[in-house]
Amino acid sequence: MQAFTPKERLFAVVNKQPVDKPPCICPGGMMNMMFQDIMEKSNCLWPEAHVDPKKMADLAYALNEAGGFENYGLPFCMTVESEAMGARVNMGNLLCEPHVVDSPLSSSAQVCLLQPLDINSGRAKVVIEAIKLLNARNTGVPIIGNLTGPVSIAGTLVDMSVLLKEYLKSPAEAEKLMEFIVENLIAFGWAQIEAGADAICIAEPSGTGEILGPQRFKAFSVRYVNEVLDALSVPVKIVHICGALKSVYEIISEFHCNVFSFDSIVPVALIKKYIPEKVVMGNINTHALGTMSPEKVASLVKTAISKGIDIVAPACGLSTATPLINVQAMVTATKQKNKQLTKYPGDKNGKGYY
Asked: How confident is the model at residue 278 (pLDDT cuts 50, 70, 90)?
């Protein structure tokens, strides 16, 4: 079989064409792909790498070069859009991602107080410039741009408990907020694509069936994610939904994505029955990636492949304490079908597995 670049392999899998092995990626965004080992190895540390486009690009590049995931994924958190619209964000530190500490609205009805996301300033501009820098390297590694899901953004602009009540009791006001968010996500998504992103991932940690219930999941998560996806033209469109999907299995097929990513609690074989038209991605347990041996990680990867996973990926965002050696084991396990895990030679310190 032909040799594939990582980008060619991802595109082929998404188009359901034969490949030499499953891609092994981590999109970034909510599904953060960075951790302390690689930050220290590359000397591109948080929080500086969140606000400096060169450090952001160099950090993503360093992980791939170290035998890590077969993509670049930007940004490394899910607060860029909320901050740009008016939320106050704590930028975190080496061990903690940026997080919203103050919501600008007390109700969806106050949507007029929000500011439009400006792609030419702030961290939105940092992400776009970092994508341009990675694209200029022309490495054959796919660049995945990220958007936080509309419901998840809404739940940071308005307290989530208030928002859930408004979805039920005053949906017209909530819909105005959602439309504002969608308009800004489309602008940010297009800017990432024009900068060189090969894929867009939308992750909804709050817009889940468990939190919303099936009716509101369809009316808010599916509806507004699809409005964003339909407005963007990019070869790979990924949607990630957190948690159990039991209450919404029959709704998942309505997402207008070609790749669906899901949590480790969801059985691969079961979700494939509900979305046979989509490529399935996941669902390697992130606790295992952070705490277990490389051999155990490799075993989880091989099990996921045997169950029918198309794209190997973490089930959610990685802890910053995740060992680089486990990420290497995850990636290189996709290259071996039934071989025993052996030493990975690429690390100068003699650490690694394949």
From this structure: very high
Secondary structure E strands in 12-164: 72-74, 88-90, 99-102, 143-148
- Of 155-164, 274-283, 315-324, 335-344, the one with minimum mean pLDDT is 335-344
Distance CA 143, CA 198 (A): 5
- Does 351 score more than 90 pLDDT? no
Asked if 347 and 84 touch (Cβ cutoff 8 Å), the reply is no
Tokens coding 145: 């741009």
Q: Provide the CA 112 distance to its chain's centre, in angstroms.
A: 29
Q: Are strands 311-314 and 259-262 parallel, antiparallel or unpaired?
A: unpaired
Whole-angstrom distance, CA of residue 193 vs CA of residue 37: 29
- Distance separating alpha carbons of residues 128 and 143, to the nearest angstrom: 11
Taking alpha carbons only, the member of 343, 314, 338, 339 closest to residue 34 is 314
Phi, psi of 249 (to 5 degrees): -50, -45
User: Over the stretch 177-204, which tens digit does the pLDDT of each residue have?
Assistant: 999 999 999 999 999 999 999 999 999 9
Residues in a beta bridge with 11: none
Identity of the amino acid at 230: D
Whether the pLDDT of residue 303 is over 50: the answer is yes
Domain ranges of the chain: 6-333
Runs of H (alpha helix) within 114-208: 122-137, 150-157, 160-169, 171-195
Contacts of 121 (CB under 8 A, 6+ apart): none
Say how far apart CA 260 and CA 222 lie, in whole Å: 13
**Looking at residue 1, what is its pLDDT?**
67
> For domain 6-333, which CATH number applies: 3.40.30.10, 3.30.70.1230, 3.30.565.10, 3.20.20.210?
3.20.20.210
Q: Provide the β-strand partners of residue 88.
A: 102
Q: What's the whole-number average pLDDT of the chain? A: 94
Tally of CB atoms within 10 A around 288: 18
Euclidean distance between CA atoms 147 and 181, whole angstroms: 11
In the numeric block, the tokens 């800017």 are attached to 191
pLDDT at 167: 96
Q: CB neighbours of 99 closer than 8 A, spacing ≥ 6?
A: 77, 79, 89, 90, 92
